[in-house]
Amino acid sequence: MNEQDFLAAYDPRDYPAVAVTVDVVALTIRDGALHLLLIRRAAPPYAGHWALPGGFVRPDEDLAAGARRELAEETGLGGERLRRVHLEQLATYGQPDRDPRMRVVSVAHLAFAPDLPDPVADTDADDAIWLPVTALTSRQLAFDHGQIIDDGLERARSKLEYAPLATRFLEPEFTITELRAVYETVWGHPLHAGNFHRKVLSVPGFVESTGASTERGGARGGPRAKLYRAGDARLLHPALLRPAREETVR
Amino acid sequence: MNEQDFLAAYDPRDYPAVAVTVDVVALTIRDGALHLLLIRRAAPPYAGHWALPGGFVRPDEDLAAGARRELAEETGLGGERLRRVHLEQLATYGQPDRDPRMRVVSVAHLAFAPDLPDPVADTDADDAIWLPVTALTSRQLAFDHGQIIDDGLERARSKLEYAPLATRFLEPEFTITELRAVYETVWGHPLHAGNFHRKVLSVPGFVESTGASTERGGARGGPRAKLYRAGDARLLHPALLRPAREETVR
DNA sequence: TAAGTTGTTCTCAGGTTGAGTTGTTCTCAA
DNA sequence: TTGAGAACAACTCAACCTGAGAACAACTTA
User: Fold this and answer.
1) Residue A149: which of A126, A131, A172 has the closest Cα?
2) What is the pLDDT of residues B45-95, one digit of tens each?
3) By the 8 A CB rule, do A96 and B60 touch?
4) How far is B230 from chain A (nearest CA, A)?
5) Is B212 exposed, middle or buried (0-12, 13-18, 19+ CB in 10 A)?
6) B41 Cα distance to chain centroid
């Protein structure tokens, strides 16, 4: 049998029925706290529970494109602001019983966005909000989304160490203090301002100066801060070090 | 409609037909070189091309279980030696046209194994071999497997920096020199023996002494080396540093 | 105008790394 | 049996990086 004959005789129905979805762990920083985009499910299963935005992959759509589409649908975002959102694949979840309807394999994605407007619930959802990650309890979450969120947060925290993604939570021009606030918020640790400043400026390609400064000093005083934009590095060398957590060493 | 009614009325056929496969990038070290497990496809598409071992996920099988099953089928491995193989999810590949038959989403996995026997071709394959990664050209590879392999190699190289996985390429007891050889092989760089020794012993939980030594010195002389086994650390703190590659800085 | 806050730059001690050296134990071959 | 070479393990030392704190000027509000 040659290749053409083979393709003509091929029947997709011979293979087990599996659905593929994309889900998005979308993170942003609001009021100094890390927030996560969630929708409240209108339909069973898990009606009334909170869930990650997501849905079926369309037949001729790339996985990343599907995730970006789902994000756009929930946030009402488009154009340049949607393009500036960082989106990467997180992991794929495929436990046979994770969805009671049928075998659903979900390709989870992770998104970093600057402070965005309140989301708009679309047809599948009762409600859509940015929820502080500290307010989460996995009991309220549908499917295995609690696990996916945990994995996404851990990926986000570790990725800030070696990739210049903290800038994706900010506007195109930002101060070193604003950048430090992103790290402190995501890592949940205060950082030494002087050392952070020295480190950021010493890593090649992390940030570059715009030459300008802020219009005003801080809300409670202090000089005007210099403005920077993201540099062209794709990895931070040497990496920033996350403050040591409680050691699990016995 | 309550949840029970909903599930009864649910028809999987309403959703687009997608097939989900698992593929495995299995790495081992043979004769001081990094090798990759490949099969030669017997059937179209890409008959005669080299491909990663893999196949369809079974209906009641976890993704990781599917990957381990595919690996076992190709290597003839089982029991304790199969259990010692490190297996982790790598990434998911779902370009709509990556398989000419239909929409196939492949969840790729990465495996680290100690030196294993030659593989046995099963029914789907003409041949199965451990191929040195330096001998690869992506023209000979089926589907997007060249890309998957590149991603897997990069993951392996970076993961050795912060995870104690180099021991997975070795027998349960090993010498520091053997461990260093794993790093040199995967990273493609010679390392300073003295500094490597100091570093490995200083990272808590990386290795622990067995108290024993090798039976003989090195093939060309030298004292007997002390034997170690893997420690209980899951991450290396502080991480090992990979020698800087040619900087991409302008 | 005074008091307090903040951005930025120093200083300094301690730790880690890269490179090289030393001493000892072993294998191989003359 | 012995000498040459190899390899494990321990060491030294300079360079660099980090954490902690201090200094100081530029701003704010009261």
Assistant:
1) A131
2) 999 999 999 999 999 999 999 999 999 998 888 889 999 999 999 999 999
3) yes
4) 15
5) exposed
6) 20
Selected residue of B15, B23, B154, B157 to mutate for chain A interface (largest A Cβ count, 10 A): B15
Question: Hey, how many other C-beta atoms are within 10 angstroms of the C-beta on B181?
Answer: 18
Q: Tokens for B171?
A: 């027998």
Which residues of chain A have a CB within 8 Å of the CB of B56? 15-16
**Stronger pLDDT, B20 or A243, i.e. the higher one:** B20
Q: How many CB atoms lie within 10 A of CB A87?
A: 20
B222 SS3 class: coil
Cβ atoms of residues A142 and A154 within 8 Å: no
Element (H, E) at A7: helix A3-8
Question: What is the DSSP secondary-structure string of A78-146?
Answer: -HHHHHTSEEEEEEEE--TTSSSSS-EEEEEEEEE-SS-PPP---TTEEEEEEEEGGG--GGGB-TTHH
Cα dihedral sign for A22, A28, A30, A32?
Answer: positive
Please name which of B82, B243, B76, B54 lies closest in space to residue B161, comparing C-alpha atoms. B243
